[in-house]
Amino acid sequence: MQCERVRELLSPYLDQALPAQDRAVLAAHLESCQGCARLAADLRRLARSLSALGRQATPPSLMLRLRRALAGAQPPVPGRSPRPSCWSSFWPRPRAAGWVPRRAAPIMAACALTAVATWWLLSLAEPEARLQHDVLAAHMRALLQASPTQVASADTHWIKPWFSGRVDFSPSVTDLSAEGFVLLGARLDYVGDRRVGVLVYRRRQHSIDVFVWPNPSNKHRAERVVVRKGYTLVTWTRHGLSYWAISDLDAGELNTLQRLL
Amino acid sequence: MSSLPRFEQLALKHLQAAYNLAFWLVRSRPDAEDVVQDAYLRALRAFQNFHGDDMRPWLLAIVRHTAYRWLNNRRRAGNVISIEEAYEAAATRDPAEPADQAPNAEARLIGAVEQDYVVRALAELPPAFREVVVLREIEGLSYRDIAKVTGAPIGTVMSRLARGRRDLRQALIQLLAEDEPNAV
To answer: Can you name the residues that pair with A200 across neighbouring β-strands?
Structure first.
C-alpha cells in the first residue's frame, strides 16, 4: 500500500471504521513505515487531547432559562390553530367583523358601567362624608371651648342681624324655647371649605349646633339622619340653604327641631 | 398536552452536548446560550416529527442548523471570533486528577499549554471540519450519527474528518513552532 493511500485511511483506521482486510494491511504498513507511524501517533495524541478537552462547561443558569422558555412556548396541537390568549380576545383583531369581539362586549360594558357607577357613588359620597366629618369636628371643637357662641342671645332679632355682614346669606332664626329648644346664640365656623353660620340651641343639658350655609347645587335634598361617633346628624335643605343639625340628642328630638326650624 | 414534559425529559439530558456544539460553531458563550435556547424552542415545535429512541443526533442537527442561521445573520456585522473565551475556558478548566498521580507543577503547566493550543487550533479550523471533529472527538458520535447531524453522506463525513484531523495537526505544529521561544 502506498504511503499516500495509507494517510488517507489513517483517520477511519483510528476510528476502527475500516473493513477487517484494510485494517490488517494498514497495520502491517505502520509496522514498517516510520513516517506513517509517526503521523498515526500524532493523530492518536491529538484525539486524546481533544477528548481530554471535553465538552465546554454549560452555564448553570442555562437549564433554568430553557425550562422557562419552553414553558412559555407550548407546542402546537396538531390539527388545531393555537388558542388565542385571554388578552387577545379583548383587542380588535384585524379581520374581526366588529370592533369589539362579541364575547368581550358584555364584559366591557359591565366594566364601563361599574366604573361609572363607582365614580358616581364616590362623587356623591365623598363630599358628603367630608361634610359630616367637618360638622362633627366643628361641633366637638365648640364643645371644648368655654362658650360655643360668639354672640349670646335668645333674641332672634339680635342674632339675625349679627349674621348679616359676616356671612352672605340670612338663615332663619327661630326662638323655640316654648318647644324646649333654648336659643343660646350663634357663631361662625368653617365647614366644607367655607365660612358657615351656626345657631346654638340647648335642650335640657344637650347642646345642639345647627350649621347653615347656602346649598351650592341648589337642589332640594331629602332630610337624612346619620350617626357618627355617637352624635346624631340631621341634614336638610330649605329655601336654598343647607342645614346640618348635630347633637348628642337622639334622632327623634333632632327631627323635631328640624321640623320647627 | 403532555408533550412538553416528555420533550423536556428527552431533550434536556442532551443540553451539555447541545451547548458544546453550539459553542464550537459560534465560538462565543453568550451566543451559544442564545443558539441553544432558540434550537430547543424549534425542537419543541418540531417534536411531533421526532420518531426514534436516540434524540441526540436529531437535536444536534437542529442546534447546528440554528447556529449556522445565526452565523449567517451575523455575517453582516463581521465574524466575531471569541477565541479569548475559548482560552479562558481552557485556562480555568480544573481537570479532575486522581490524587495518587497528581503531576508535578511542570507537567501540569505543559498540559495546560497543550490544551490552550488545541482549543485555539480547533477554533480556527473551518467550520465544516471543525464540526465533524467536535462531533467525533468530543461528542464521540458514530459516523452514521455525524451524517445525521450534518446532513452529509457518510463518505463525506469520513473525508472531512480525515482532512480536519490532518489540518488540526498541521495547525498545532505551526502554533508550537511560533511559540517555541516562549515555550523554552
So the answer is: A185, A209
Q: Across the interface, do A10 and B162 touch by the CB < 8 Å criterion?
A: yes
Query: In chain B, what are the domains?
Result: 1-80 (1.10.1740.10), 86-91+101-184 (1.10.10.10)
pLDDT tens profile A8-37 = 899 999 998 889 999 999 999 999 999 899
Whether the Cβ atoms of residue A181 and residue A208 lie closer than 8 Å to each other = yes
Q: Which of A11, A46, A71 sits opposite B158 (nearest CB)?
A: A11
Is residue A133 a part of any domain in this protein?
yes
The answer to pTM > 0.95 is no
Distance from CA of B177 to the nearest CA of A (A): 15
Q: Do A70 and B4 touch (CB under 8 A)?
A: yes
Give the three-state DSSP class for A81: coil
Range of the domain at A8: 3-46
In angstroms, what separates the C-alpha of A102 from chain B's closest C-alpha? 28
**Residue A209 belongs to domain with CATH number:** 3.30.200.100
Cβ atoms of A240 and A215 within 8 Å: the answer is yes
